[in-house]
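AraC family transcriptional regulator: structure tokens wanted.
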Amino acid sequence: MYAWESIQCTLDFIEENLDAKQDIKQLAAKAALSPFYYQRLFTKLVKKPVMEYIKLRRLAKACEILKESDDTILNIAVSCGFGSQEVFTRSFKEAYGMTPTSYRQKPIMLNQFDKPDLLLNETEIEENSPLVSEGLVLEMKHIVLEQPIHFTGISGIVPISAQLPLGETCGVDIPGQLWTQFHQLKHQLPVLHHGREIGVSYLNSKTPDGCFTYFTGAECEAANTQWESFTLPPRAYIICSFEAETFDELVTASLNKAVKFSTRWLSEHGYVMDCFAPEIYHTAQIPSMELWYPYQSQ
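Answer:
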């Protein structure tokens, strides 16, 4: 068993037992490692100490329950492995800047620390060869776009420190809020019926230092001057296409995994990504997305 497989084994165990008390010695034994080496290796691969990671995954589970259940805050705290309501509330506010009660009253999209899939750090795939891992189906390919694709929608300014690294920060999901606003306005926009939707991060002269601009919109026939617009220019792209079991998984954990995998894939194949990387969403029965990478060879 490789070292990463030992850690993945304990990640799976932790996820299945978030309500239970976790012990470093027990986890280290499952990984067949000493407690000292287990903690060092875990922190290196997961980017968080063991107990901090467990707390963040418990908070992610609690967020799901708060949205879907009318159970008391105390019962949710206990069912997610927190020793008391006070500890749970304090941890929740430190991570998200609001209390569990406030979140329940006005739920918004939040960034979570995802459960890592360490296999994606070790796996190599060739173009047009699908990779399947933990409910994620992913594929890399080249295309050449012959004609521009126009989108119209809205944009906002996003602080980089609050959103990156993907899947490793907690707090308010600002791009997610922009998507909510866009879908509330979409019926007013001159967009194509069943057209593709886009989310894209980029920098321009109006973007403050330490931030990026995030545009969200839908496909239209031509650039529109009444609303904000983004045009996907004709050129060569490398596309990372992927599917997930649910739309919520697609736009959170699966997206974060796909970005990390494709970024590594580009580097290992000698490509450098240019200034923007659109997320193209398809309206279909199976939740699917494409990451379009304009690139240059190193």
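The domain at 3-107 is CATH 1.10.10.60 (Arc Repressor Mutant, subunit A). The first helix runs from residue 3 to 16.

Cheers.
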